[in-house]
Amino acid sequence: MTKATEIKKPERRKKVIPSENSFFLNELLGIATQILESKVLLDLGTNWDKDGAEPVDKIAYLNAVSFLKKYAAFIFKEYGKVISTPCTDLLKDGSVYINWENSSANFLIIFKKDQNQAFYYAESIDAKGSILPFNGSLYTSSAEIDKKTAIWMKNHLLAENEAQLSKYEKLENVFAGNIYVGKLPKALSFLASSISKSRFILSLLDNWDDEGSKKYAEATLFASCKFIIDFANNIYKNFSLQIDIPRIFPGPKGSIDIIWEFEKYRLVINVDANGEDATFYGDSQDQISEGQFKLANFYSHLLPIPA
Prior knowledge:
With 307 residues, the chain is an alpha+beta fold. The protein has six helices and twelve strands. It has helices at residues 29-38, 58-79, 147-156, 160-164, 192-197, 218-239; strands at residues 87-90, 96-101, 105-111, 117-125, 131-139, 171-176, 179-185, 247-250, 256-261, 265-271, 277-284, 288-294. The longest helix is centred in the N-terminal third of the chain and has 22 residues, at 58-79. The chain starts with 28 loop residues before the first helix and ends in a 13-residue tail after the last strand.
């Protein structure tokens, strides 16, 4: 990675005003965003895994989306709880699955191709460390909510922010333009403006710098902004510190630079174009720190704290 002393700030580009926000302005924005992102599954054709996999069964996909919307909305309406955002993906035969995992529970539900039933396999860990299985099936054609399943989801799949932060602390939705990227407590809401302004990066077209650079992927910007939110929340929760406001710039080869530059220190975190890997370089008058990490599993304690 280029050392901070060699970093040149990219020329500021004219900001493009985003289109009207298409997401619902409520506490289920994380679920709504995940559903929108899962539509990429519909574009996968035959042999998408280069091992003979079949394309997604559209009915199975629609049944999966219907289940997620219906149960998330019911749990929020009936119990005032927000379930965490799951992973939605394909099986080799074109079936669709939705999976939740956390430190004390997991829930996998499979919407099989050419079947009107979805089968779920779940387990949780009680206070004594015992594993408690919870398996069953649901008819996809039924409009009714299975309350036993909904209650289990409400008890074990609570969104991380709601589970860890005080129930008296209001969380604010944060957007990068019209992309929902997460939530911040009021004490960290000052970071939202910088994140929102980063949307201009997606308006940069191929060769925007006259040096052959390619346009930036929405997934890369999302990963970068989500990292800032997760990092800020972790530092605030564990150290009661508010991180300084970063600037978000287009980086080389489709990557994104997150930069803190102040009189006392400088920290640059570069998020790779794949949206999965990151490197960092920080310096101050007396020390230098650098390294790399995975965005999906990083320890805030091992990164320089920009505060």
